[in-house]
Amino acid sequence: MDRVSKVYGSPVPFTALRDASLTIDAGDTVAVVGPSGSGKTTLLGILGGLERPSSGAVQILGNDLAALPDAQVAGIRAHRIGFVFQRFHLIEHLTVLENVATGLLYHGVGGRARRSSAQAALERVGLHRRASERVSHLSGGERQRVAIARAIIGHPNLILADEPTGNLDSVNGGMVMSLLTGLADADTAVVVVTHDPTVATRLGRTITVRDGGIVDNTGESA
Ligand SMILES: Nc1ncnc2c1ncn2[C@@H]1O[C@H](COP(=O)(O)OP(=O)(O)OP(=O)(O)O)[C@@H](O)[C@H]1O
Ligand SMILES: [Mg+2]
């Protein structure tokens, strides 16, 4: 991300992100911290191609998101990026397996391949035995693990999690953080927005945002 700003339009223009520059490498685990309203979710949304920057450049694996049409940004999002949210965003009336399989809907693979990939992703989060249950039967911690399986089913290079432990107790939060940090590898980076200092200390480096600006970014490789 190079000198990215985001200005929301109406009724009065508001700068939610100002001149933000950062680099995230494969293998990195990054915490994004800062007060409520400081721009953390905005930063994550721009990193993930959910929102377009008002100015500046966002490059993912050599693709400049700001220069690409929406359809191509959506393709990069589907293939390269996995999202995890505080409130899980699962589909209640579907089974665990069906929820995970939706993570491949835009990959052009058939139903059978989606289901076998979903089963493999569920094994990675330890929920393969629950595949045929409805998500409405699951606890919060289990739901978040389903959401993580959905995020990783397509082997993304960047996993973005916005307050993933915000609705969990400390035991389940710890389990979710272990899973998330374990996903970083030679091809994959993990970025976690959090209010919780103990969550932040579990990640390799911390980016601090205040009033829309990055005020601290210690540990970024030169
Ligand atoms: N779509 C939008 N239109 C207008 N303003 C917005 C929009 N989205 C966010 N904002 C504003 O931008 C600022 C940053 O919001 P953002 O959601 O990024 O904060 P945050 O750091 O994630 O906060 P929290 O910790 O409460 O989740 C806030 O003042 C917010 O009201
Ligand atoms: Mg937020």
- What small molecules does this complex bind? adenosine-5'-triphosphate, magnesium ion
Structure annotation, total helices: 7
* Average pLDDT number: 95
What is the number of E strands?
11
Uncertain stretches: none
Structural class: alpha/beta
Distance between the termini: 15 Å
CATH architecture of the domain at 2-90 and 157-218: 3-Layer(aba) Sandwich
Mind telling me the CATH class of the domain at 2-90 and 157-218?
Answer: Alpha Beta
Major sheet strand order: 7-8-9-3-10-11
Query: What fraction, in percent, of the residue positions are helical?
Result: 25-40%
Describe the global form: globular
At CATH level 3, the topology of the domain at 2-90 and 157-218 is Rossmann fold
Radius of gyration, whole Å: 17 Å
Strand percentage lies at 15-25%
CATH superfamily of the domain at 2-90 and 157-218, please? P-loop containing nucleotide triphosphate hydrolases
* Major β-sheet profile: 6 strands, mixed
H/E series, N to C? EEEHEEEHEHHHEHEHEE
Topology of this structure?
Layout: E1 2-8, E2 14-20, E3 29-33, H1 40-47, E4 55-57, E5 59-60, E6 63-64, H2 70-80, E7 81-85, H3 96-101, H4 111-124, H5 140-152, E8 158-162, H6 170-181, E9 189-193, H7 197-200, E10 205-210, E11 213-218
Parallel strand pairs: 3-9, 3-10, 7-8, 8-9
Antiparallel strand pairs: 1-2, 1-4, 5-6, 10-11
Bound molecules: adenosine-5'-triphosphate and magnesium ion (MG).
